[in-house]
Every structure is written in structure tokens, then in C-alpha cells.
Recover the amino acids of this structure.
């Protein structure tokens, strides 16, 4: 079974530039998450999708971050304009929707962003 | 926000059992306890989860206290490859529930 795919693995940009990260979840997984992980910290949830609808984006800095999941499969996370503090690993995860039960998250390897 | 408390770091001798504690004193009746680990430069990896009963799989055992306010992840025979950050997470089962990660426990397995 193919895992969660993310690209690019690494990206270096200047502050105020824009960047986009792509995620392809595991086939059949309706729920998709984007997390931000700053060095030395645990992953922080940015946004959660179920199919192509947003379930939770309360921690997404909407003035500069945007995310979409057209057709309920692939997702793109964009940062525009980037700030120095956006330097982090951006993790994508997916899970099955398990009504009343416990669905585990499957993570990709992440996209490491360095903002100079 | 994370609802769990874990020690920031622990050491364990190779071949011995690693016991990683987690406090979740405000856990609700419908919340599961999950454990994930993150090896350097990789995404977090699922280990195990449980609701009330103790659970065991090929990777680890999860012991949940009767009052469910704390739990322990047990790696029965730690190897060098178990060196990682271990996250304990509580998560409700209702629609829209999220996984909130804390800062985890950095486990170092010593040869």
C-alpha cells in the first residue's frame, strides 16, 4: 500500500516569497491534515479536511497561509508571503473516517521549509 | 491544545524494557489514548491506541490506569532503532476530532 506522498522534500526561499507544498493521501482516506512542526516542538495542526470540506482551520494563519483540497483527494498548502518564522517541516497526514471509532493517522515524510 | 503531560526525555538500556509515562488527568469518557513516535527527519508513526483496556501489538503494550488519568507505553525489548520522540495524544471519537501533539518524550536507547 502506497503511503502519504509529499513534495517537495526541501525548499529554501527568501522572506516575502511564496511557496506551495503538495500532498497525495493514501487512497480512500477521506480525512487529510496539514501540520506545521517547528524544530524542537511537536506537530501543530494547521488545517483538517474531510473530503473537500474544511473541518478545522482555526490555527491556520489565514493572512498568509491557504490550503485547498479540490476533488477531495490531493491537497496543496500555500504560504504567501513567507516569514522567517515559517521555517519548519510541513507534514501531511491522512486517515479513514471511522464513525464512533478510532482512526489512526498516517503521515508523509514532510516538506522542510527554510526561509532566509 | 495538547491534553497530556510527558517527561521531556528518558534513557533506556538496549534490550531492556522502556516504560514511557503519560498523564492525561482531564481525559473524557469518549477519548482514546494514542501513541505515536517520530524518528529524526521522518513523519510520526502510529504505535498503538486504547480506550479502557490494556492493549498489545507487535510494537508495544499500552497500560491504561483504571481511572484512565494516566497510561504507560511499554517497549518490551528496546533497540537502538527505538530512539525517537514519543507522543501521547488523547482524541475524541466524534466527527471533526483532531490529533493534538504535545512536545513528547525523547527516548534514547543506550548500547
Amino acid at each position: 500500500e502506497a503511503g502519504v506522498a509529499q513534495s517537495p522534500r526541501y525548499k529554501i526561499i527568501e522572506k516575502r516569497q511564496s511557496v506551495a507544498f503538495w500532498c497525495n493521501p493514501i487512497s480512500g482516506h477521506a480525512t487529510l491534515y496539514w501540520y506545521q512542526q517547528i524544530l524542537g516542538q511537536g506537530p501543530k495542526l494547521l488545517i483538517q479536511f474531510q473530503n473537500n470540506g474544511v473541518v478545522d482551520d482555526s490555527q491556520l494563519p489565514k493572512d498568509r497561509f491557504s490550503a485547498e483540497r479540490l476533488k477531495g483527494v490531493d491537497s496543496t498548502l500555500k504560504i504567501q508571503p513567507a516569514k522567517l518564522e515559517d521555517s519548519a517541516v510541513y507534514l501531511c497526514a491522512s486517515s479513514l473516517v471511522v464513525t464512533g471509532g478510532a482512526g489512526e493517522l498516517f503521515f508523509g515524510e514532510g516538506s522542510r521549509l527554510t526561509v532566509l | 491544545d495538547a491534553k497530556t503531560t510527558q517527561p521531556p526525555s528518558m534513557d533506556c538500556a538496549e534490550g531492556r524494557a522502556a516504560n514511557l509515562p503519560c498523564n492525561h488527568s482531564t481525559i473524557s469518557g469518549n477519548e482514546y489514548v494514542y501513541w505515536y513516535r517520530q524518528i529524526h527527519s521522518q513523519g510520526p508513526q502510529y504505535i498503538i491506541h486504547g480506550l479502557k483496556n490494556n492493549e498489545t501489538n507487535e510494537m508495544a503494550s499500552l497500560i491504561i490506569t483504571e481511572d484512565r488519568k494516566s497510561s504507560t507505553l511499554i517497549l518490551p525489548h528496546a533497540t537502538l532503532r527505538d530512539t525517537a520522540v514519543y507522543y501521547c495524544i488523547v482524541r475524541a471519537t466524534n466527527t471533526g476530532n483532531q490529533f493534538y501533539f504535545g512536545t513528547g518524550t525523547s527516548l534514547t536507547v543506550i548500547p
Remarks:
- Strands of chain B lie at 9-13, 18-23, 31-38, 45-50, 55-56, 61-64, 70-75, 84-92, 105-110.
- The longest strand of chain B covers residues 84-92.
